[in-house]
Amino acid sequence: MGQRAAFLDSPALAPGITRFWLIRHALVEQNARLRLYGSLDVPLCPESLVAQVPMYRALAARLPRDAAWVATPLSRTQRTARAIQEAGYPETAWTVEPDLTEQSMGDYHGLAHHELPERLSVPAHPFWPISAEEVPPGGESMEQVCIRVGAALERLAEQHDGRDIVAVSHGGAIRAACAHALGIGAGPALRLSVQNLSLTILERHPAAWRVVAINELPGL
Q1: Which backbone phi and psi does 20 adopt, to 5 degrees?
Q2: Neighbours of 27 (CB within 10 A)
């Protein structure tokens, strides 16, 4: 499941199995990366949109046809979805799914990264701006994100039972999806690497969830 692993074949789904193809949005623009943007609506990096065209093409070729598509309300996921389709995937309308949006950092939104530690009540997670339990003022904890995302996955699986679902989402939300599938807490899930434009594949079977791949990078 490493980032350089070859893409796996995607056989036809057996009855009762729903497969999620979770894609983290592309890199956001440089000024946004200097601060905590969480669930703020920030644009993609225009230079990366050009430079990473081969990755969009690889995703377009890899994703299953006749899939249901969803994206979050934030423009960076919808622009990523459009770029994948422009790179060769058949034009497909997507549904906007708010419950797959990134963690809200509340009052921490817009802080420069070096300004955050003095605001925290407990030390940050080694691989995330705050701990899994921390609830930013006016925001939500990663534990709460896991509950929100898990419920969304179950609902989408019921709505699209037996189908493939392509979901363009966010790094934190995809980690939360993995936590739901694996039955683990938010803290361990934050140790997973989910890079921009990476692909994570989860399956809901009648009796349990199955993790097929995490953090596969297209074209590598």
Answers
A1: -100, 130
A2: 20
170: CB partners within 8 A, 6+ apart: 24, 25, 72, 74, 77, 100, 101, 102, 103
For 96, other C-beta atoms within 10 Å of its C-beta total 13
Phi, psi of 80, rounded to the nearest 5 degrees: -65, -45
Report the DSSP beta bridge partners of residue 166. Answer: 21, 69
pLDDT the model gives residue 4: 37
Q: Which amino acid is at 119?
A: R
pTM: 0.93
Give the side-chain half-sphere CA count within 13 A for 108. 25
Instruction: Say if residue 135 is exposed, middle or buried (CB neighbours under 10 Å; 0-12, 13-18, 19+).
Output: middle
Q: 18-216: what fold?
A: Rossmann fold (3.40.50)
Phi/psi of residue 12, nearest 5 degrees: -60, 145
Sign of the torsion formed by the C-alpha atoms of 110, 114, 115 and 120: positive
Model pLDDT, residue 115: 96
Q: What confidence tens digit (pLDDT) does each residue in 36-89 have?
A: 999 999 999 999 999 999 999 999 999 999 999 999 999 999 999 999 999 999
Q: Which residues of the chain have pLDDT under 50?
A: 1-9
Whole-number Å distance between alpha carbons of 37 and 121: 20
